[in-house]
Amino acid sequence: MSVKIVEVDVDNEGRRLDNYLISYLKDIPKSKIYKIIRKGEIRVNSSRAKPDRKIKNGDLIRIPPNLNITKTSIKSINIKQLENLKEKIIYEDKNYIVINKDAGIAVHGGSKNYIGIIDIARKIYGRNIDLCHRLDKNTSGCLVLAKNKQSAKHFNNLIKNRLVQKTYVCVLKGNIRKSIVVNRPVYKTKNSKSKEAHSKFEKIKNLKGFSVVKVKIFTGRTHQIRIHAAMIGHPIVFDNKYGDRVLNNNLDNKLKRRIALHSHHVRFKDQDSKIIDIKCKNPLDIDILIKSLH
Questions:
Q1: For 9, 25, 64, 178, which has the most beta carbons within 10 A of its beta carbon?
Q2: pTM, full prediction
Q3: Do 97 and 114 lie in a common domain?
Q4: Are 131 and 145 in contact (CB under 8 A)?
Q5: pLDDT, the chain, mean
Q6: CA-CA distance, 27 to 7, in Å (whole number)?
Q7: What is the pLDDT at residue 133?
């Protein structure tokens, strides 16, 4: 592959550089894309650029010549994976699909999680389909995908203007007595990269030393709910990064040991002013966990 210059069109204006490259270089691992951005091999209008740069109509993006797809880069998706995804679709129209994502599958492929939901979706719908947002690998529930660039851009604008309503259900350590609003910055690795974040925790019911809680998020930071839950002293069950590992290890070994967090509800207005309002029922493992903690 020789050096390639790609001109950004109006459909992709306003996208982050990294997200654009992930969708454009579909057969290149995400880790490789971030590496070539970091090394300056990707240029925008002949200048180095950061992953979060917002690209504009007419920008010229240089794609380096060393991105040959190796055999290990070719993604082999089997019939079972295709059928599983089709079974998880709970809403579909001309612009969007919503799936009830299983825990244990990544939304993006990569060096460790090579086949992601987006790879399987592109096998079914073609190369134009894109993720509208992300869920952690071990988080289940509502996941929205856009069938075209205009819909992806519209959803991204809704998120920027906080016009997408997202609600999660989780199981927390301890009994929550009242609703708790958390307006505290979060960070994934370094305090210096903290970003404002807003969450509201509302008790559904208390169990024996645990709580089933509904969480509304007003920002979409990485690990936001997990970090905020830990900040208020009620970490999510089976969250071994921010939570109580001793407590997690003492729970029944027969329980599925994945983070007890589920994307329950998403609501937004599409570009034709149609309201899309979708709920994903709890997966069986969450219901079994709740029953065991009564």
A1: 25
A2: 0.78
A3: yes
A4: yes
A5: 89
A6: 20
A7: 93
Which CATH number fits the domain that encloses residue 11?
Answer: 3.10.290.10
- Number of structural domains found in the chain: 3
Active site residues: 136
Q: Which helix (H) or strand (E) holds 287?
A: helix 284-292
How many Å apart are CA 280 and CA 168, to the nearest integer? 10
Last residue within a domain, chosen from 113, 132, 160: 160
Domain of residue 88 covers 75-160
Q: Which of 283, 259, 265, 257 is nearest to 88 (CA)?
A: 283
Report angle CA 135, 101, 193 to the nearest 5 degrees. 5
Give yes or no for residue 72 having a pLDDT over 70. Answer: no
Spatial contact of 14 and 54, defined as CB atoms under 8 Å apart: yes
Q: State percent of the chain over pLDDT 90.
A: 68
The pLDDT tens digits of the residues spanning 268-284 come to 999 999 999 999 999 99
CATH number of domain containing 155: 3.30.2350.10
